[in-house]
Amino acid sequence: MGNSISGQVLDAETHLPLPFASISVMDSQLGTISNSEGYFVLSSESILGTDTLLFSYMGYETFKRAVQDFEKSPLVYLRPVEINLDAVTVYSRQLTGREIIGQVRENYPKNHPERSEMRRMFYHKFERTPFPEDNQIHVKHSDFVGMDKATIEGLLKMLPDEFTEYQDAVLSFYNDEDKHKLVPVEAISLEEDAMQDLEAILEKKLGAFFEDIEKSKGNQEIYYKFRTGVFAMKADTNPDEDTGALEPHADSLHYRVPTTQLDGEVSFLLKDYGSLKSDNWEFITKPNRYDYRMKEVTVFNGELVYQVAFTPRERGLFEGTLYVSTESFAILQLDFAYAPGKTSENIHLLGFGHSMNSKQGRVIFEKGKEGYFVKYIHAKQHETASIARDFTIMKKQKRFLIDKELNEIKLEASLTFEIHSDWELLILDRKPLEANEFEIVKQPAVVRFRKEYSNAPDLWDNRTVIAPSAELTKYTRKE
């Protein structure tokens, strides 16, 4: 790759890859993380040949290497650290795991401060949702033109066996307290062309129907109403409200995604996986649900580190390990996942169902001048959603007493989805926002994802990204 530094981080003794190693440029906020196979890619755009890279890994000695030395070899070997037992005795102070968790919670606001800032990020998402053959949408009645039983059931047969969503993006994320904005820099997608073909067919077959719904939003006399059981709602009737509608998609080179959707997913990852505000961090916020066990003290980036393993009691969900600075009680790394047999959100009500079958997270923090900040998040979820309901869509005309029904379609749905989601978020750089800087940032309506057929680091022109794993490199966009 032209203007970039790439390599692989390995154990010096076993020569095995070290996944998720931290790589940073000395005296700067620039850096990256190695992938699950130890490979990394780092843009050299803002790096001088005289700069030095730092390589850190939990339980290993921090290693320094000059940028210019990568021309000789792309391999970086880290050595397991030898712990000074006297230092361990001084720092351990006979604290229990539960006491350390209490100190983490108490010192969290000081160690992990919230501030207004701009974060340059690399975002990765790979989501698979199989569509089983036994999923059905049955038309019980319809007097809408072009919405007959044969048309609807014919479209159902055209759906793919599996929906996939593969998105990579470099973006700028601005936050000011609870407000945030997202500005894309570059984005690619390996989603299937079959989905765009299906969208074209849907537009051709049902375009008039959806266009009529949109027109009704500006009509004071005509409206659409959706009903399922005792629940009913009107289509939005405010023509001045920004619905975030996409631009016309007559572009064979890009997919267009509402920016609010991408903004929502980035915010979700930062809050639900990277913050004490998250319910996922109940092993810190609800210690009575967990048992804690102290493992040996280790080292990360020159700091002595407590390793606190946790397992759930009856009401807990997660098992994993918390890595905590012995000096400040700051969180340096988190690894957690649902313990065997644990699930959550098991909701089955009025024909709707949802369950979270598994969650898994890894969060790595980096030390800055003001505290410790999220550097990397890897989140995986497997959930099940189901619908077994009758739905009615009605087009109505307002009248003085009883509104007149113009058209109606009744549908019977029996659908089940298994959703497998995998996200990665890497903070490439960060800087504090000055007063009023947030207000002048303009968030665009859509993000344009450039279509590519396969993933490789050379897709990105001199950018720091997470190097794709062998599994993702093999994945190609299907025609």
UniProtKB/TrEMBL annotation:
Pfam family, one: CarbopepD_reg_2
InterPro entries: CarboxyPept-like_regulatory
Protein name: Carboxypeptidase-like regulatory domain-containing protein
Lineage of the organism: Bacteria, Pseudomonadati, Bacteroidota, Cytophagia, Cytophagales
